[in-house]
TrEMBL record:
Tagged with keyword Phosphoprotein: no
GO MF terms held by the record: GTP binding; GTPase activity; translation initiation factor activity
One CC-aspect GO term: cytoplasm
UniProt name for this protein: Translation initiation factor IF-2
Tr-type G domain segment(s): 86-255
Keywords on record: Cytoplasm, GTP-binding, Initiation factor, Nucleotide-binding, Protein biosynthesis
Organism: Horticoccus luteus
Length: 490
């Protein structure tokens, strides 16, 4: 049976257009979502993503498993098992806007960071670690799903436990459901914190019944979901919440091998004046030490200094520890994974290779015959009866995605149809440009920035990118683009 791009993408957990660009790179030709692939090509791509492709010759297409080659696998596993040591849980806080995510993160941190520590300064570096009842807990300090989903999109499942915040006076809202869906898809343990219990009109019973409707019934209703009433503002219930998180962590038996070469995930990165590129990472495996050579996609560094979330210099970071690393060759993306390699030379070489791969990807894509300029696209559309304005949307948070959709739904026209090909959270990436180019879509960014290198690539492919901070301006622009579609050519 043929191996179809769409099926393979699903099997590998890749976005279809990511796979399309992989296929183009591997074959030098153009592939679409319904293209069939030769087995060796599919094999090679699967391998690149750490899968062994098993093609069933009768019945369904693919059944991949995440394995390395058999004998090294056995050895690695034995070594791993021996060295596995308990590690702190990594927790993220999700929920609807204004339900108190930031307040809860602040309350947890304030109550559990000794006031003398680093002058009590609370730095925001994207993650922090506290100690509660002698146990460590790491919190992602980037509330909202933006960070969470961006990392997931890159396949980096850094979170162990998601705390779903629901305001007691408001109940489940669209973003609460969205967050729930994402947490469930990510297969992380979910704890519900019913916040704002101090507010008049707080109605925890209603929240619980909403939980039941969503098949996450609370424990006292015969379900399994731990539910804790809290008030982030008053600080009540916060200790109970932490206790429950620890309990849940114990059940999960989280472990990692601190003896391995360090590897982990970038949580946040930025350029700091005088320090260059700085990235907050969470170590997932191994121990990160000063002097390590790291590679992270196209970027690398030799670790000259490590800083804790309290701004103190530290010598090493064990699994689940958030740590800040300065002096990268460029700014690594959040969600990207890093690993320690033999020496700086090796790191630099690997980074260069990664960069060349990306460049080749762009060139191959540029050679695709399918490429359509916006003008061409509009002309094509004008030639047909059916006029469609295709959009690829990127926003800062899920809430914005929802808001945009409702604005777009409000724009009605019998002559032009607006088709949203994808609406995701995060930066506008090179892959977005490739996808827009392949499908003839316009990229619409709302409250988000462009990844490095996107502008030249978009120019190269004649892909139009429109960025907005104000929602009604976006609505106006979309109307304008729709009107343009209706203008007779020439
Ligand atoms: P986020 O958007 O989910 O991060 O929500 P914030 O933490 O920014 O909180 C939104 C608003 O709700 C702020 O005005 C907070 O002061 C308020 N708030 C948060 N938690 C509580 C709470 O437990 N009780 C009360 N009364 N107000 C709260």
């Amino acid at each position: 049976p043929p191996i179809i791009v769409r099926d393979l993408a699903v099997a590998l957990g890749l976005k279809p257009f990511k796979l399309i660009s992989e296929v183009s790179q591997a074959t030098g030709g153009f592939a679409g979502i319904n293209s069939s692939l030769d087995e060796p090509v599919a094999m090679k791509i699967a391998e690149k993503y750490g899968f062994l492709l098993e093609v069933k010759h009768r019945g369904e297409a693919v059944a991949p498993q995440k394995v390395k080659t058999a004998d090294t696998k056995a050895k690695i596993e034995e070594e791993e098992q021996k060295n596995l040591t308990p590690r702190p849980p990594v927790i993220c806080i999700l929920g609807h806007v204004d339900h108190g995510k930031t307040s809860l993160l602040d309350a947890i941190r304030k109550a559990n960071v000794a006031s003398g520590e680093a002058g009590g300064i609370t730095q925001h570096i994207g993650a922090y670690q506290i100690e509660f009842q002698g146990k460590k807990l790491t919190f992602l300090d980037t509330p909202g799903h933006a960070a969470f989903s961006k990392m997931r999109a890159r396949g980096a499942d850094v979170t162990d436990i998601a705390v779903l915040v629901v305001a007691a006076d408001d109940g489940f809202m669209p973003q609460t459901d969205e967050a729930l869906k994402h947490a469930q898809n990510a297969d992380v343990a979910i704890i519900v914190a019913v916040n704002k219990m101090d507010v008049k009109g707080a109605n925890i019973e209603q929240v619980k019944s909403q939980m039941q409707q969503r098949n996450i019934a609370p424990e006292d209703w015969g379900g399994e979901t731990i539910t804790v009433p809290v008030s982030a503002i008053k600080g009540t219930g916060v200790d109970q919440l932490l206790e429950m998180i620890l309990l849940q962590a114990e059940v999960l038996e989280l472990k990692a091998n601190p003896k391995a070469e360090a590897s982990g995930v970038v949580i946040e990165s930025e350029i700091e004046i005088g320090r260059g590129s700085v990235a907050t990472v969470i170590v997932q495996r191994g121990t990160l030490r000063v002097g390590d050579a790291l590679v992270c996609g196209q970027h690398w560094t030799r670790v000259k200094a490590l800083f804790s979330d309290k701004g103190e210099q530290i010598k090493e970071a064990t699994p689940s520890t958030p740590v800040r690393i300065i002096g990268w060759s460029g700014t690594p993306d959040s969600g990207a994974t890093f690993r320690a390699v033999k020496n700086p030379r090796e790191a630099e070489r690997l980074a260069e290779e990664a960069e060349q791969r990306t460049r080749k990807e762009a060139t191959v894509a540029a050679a695709e015959p399918k490429e359509v300029s916006v003008e061409q696209l509009f002309a094509d559309i004008a030639a047909t009866q059916h006029k469609v304005l295709k959009l690829l949307i990127k926003t800062d948070v899920f809430g914005s995605t929802e808001a945009l959709r409702s604005v777009l739904d409000g724009i009605k026209s019998t002559k032009v149809q607006v088709e949203v090909l994808a609406a995701d959270v995060g930066l506008v990436t090179k892959n977005d440009v490739l996808m827009a180019s392949a499908s003839g879509a316009v990229i619409v960014g709302f409250n988000t920035k462009l990844e490095n290198g996107v502008t030249p690539l978009a120019k190269h492919h004649n892909v139009r990118i429109e960025s907005f901070q104000i929602i009604y301006e976006l609505g106006d622009k979309v109307r304008e683009m729709m009107a343009d579609l209706l203008e007779p050519e020439q």
